[in-house]
Structure formats: structure tokens, C-alpha cells
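re: that chain from earlier
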Amino acid sequence: MKVTEQLRELESVAETLGVRVSYEPMTGLVSGAGGMCRVKGEYRVIIDRRLRTSERITLLADALRRFDTASIEMPAVVRRALRGGAGDGNDTAGNDTAGNDTAGNDTDGKVRRSA
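^ sequence. v structure.
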């Protein structure tokens, strides 16, 4: 999946979660790559529009990682990005050398909670 498609999928996940995503110039008094905030009870992710698409994906995935996305349908590569993987379809984050999930997830993709 192309990075532009991955970004669109993440933006769709954000919309499903009720998180507004905007791309703004982060210059002057406002500096940095962007991040998530809450304005009048609404979650927003503001991303520096000068960032490359891959950097936008990383920032947006990091912000959306805080939400429960288990019931939202999305491509596997996007789900891996939300788990902290590279999102390129070739990452093995959370897997041992045999390909078994070691990230605390059940086989259905749900995160196990420790007691």
C-alpha cells in the first residue's frame, strides 16, 4: 500500500473516532511537528503541513494509538502503524523470529490486559 493511501486510511480512522485532523504551518510562535490536543471537548491532531507523508503517518498513528481502534476495519499495514510498527508491510514489530505475535495481542488482534 502506498504511503498516501496509508495516510488516507489513518485520516479515515481519525474521522471514525471523531478526531479532527488538520495540516497547518508550524512556524513562528508555534514550532514542532504537531500533535494531539483537545479544543472545546473535541480531539484534534494538528500536523505541520511541511512534513513528508511518512512523517505525517508516524505523527497521526502516534496520536490515534491512544484510542480503542479494535472495532474499526482497516488494512493490516495501517493497524501495524497504530501498534507502533513501521507501517510499510515489511515490519516484524511484535513478532518473534517464527512470526508469532509477542506484542501482547491475542490471535484475533486484541490486546491482552495484564492482571
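Helices lie at 3-17, 53-64, 76-83.
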